[in-house]
Amino acid sequence: MKRGVASRAILAGIISGLFLGLFLKVIERVTGIKVYTLLLNVDYVPFLNQIKLHETIEFGLHLIISIVLSLLIMKFLGGKRWGKGTKYSFIIGASITIGLILFPTTALSARTPELSSLAALIYWLVGHGLYGWLLAWVLRTEE
Asked: Fewest beta carbons less than 10 Å away: which of 9, 90, 122, 128?
């Protein structure tokens, strides 16, 4: 991956990750549904679950994951000749799929929404869909 491409992927991961965090924090503040807490939750990660982490550190971990995801997507799409709409669909679909995979971790913590919370799942997936759209937009490349 060329330096300029990697820089764009890192920037895309940061921007999209910041957006998702802000979106879910606003949802949590307005509704009381702990979707932002779920985003930052590390209760199920060995070693990390034994340390009381400050919100800033937890958010930093979220941003690192977002950057890594962005780099992986950019690497995967790099050699592909897909149309713009197909790339957007792939990235949005991947983001929603990751959200679906991660949502059940809510059952592993008393601080996060109940696994059965349909409202939490909807906000979570909408946030991840918007994250994917923004990530695709920032990663866009000329065809």
From this structure: 122
Number of domains in the chain: 1
Q: Please tell me the distance from the alpha carbon of residue 84 to that of residue 140, in angstroms, as a whole number.
A: 8
What confidence score (pLDDT) does residue 77 get?
83
* CA proximity to 87, closest of 97, 102, 79, 66: 79
* 99 in Cβ contact with 20 (< 8 Å): no
CB proximity list for 13: less than 8 A, separation 6 or greater: 63, 66, 67, 68, 69, 70, 71, 135
The tokens 């997507």 sit on which residue? Answer: 73
Determine the Cα–Cα distance for residues 7 and 1; give it in Å rounded to an integer. Answer: 10
What is d(CA 140, CA 143) in angstroms, rounded to the nearest whole number?
9
Length of the chain in residues, anyone?
A: 143
Residue 125 gets the label, from left (phi > 0), alpha (psi -120 to 50) or beta, of alpha
Domain that holds residue 131: 3-139
Q: Mean pLDDT in runs of 10 for the chain (143 residues)?
A: 84 97 98 97 77 90 96 84 83 96 91 95 98 93 46
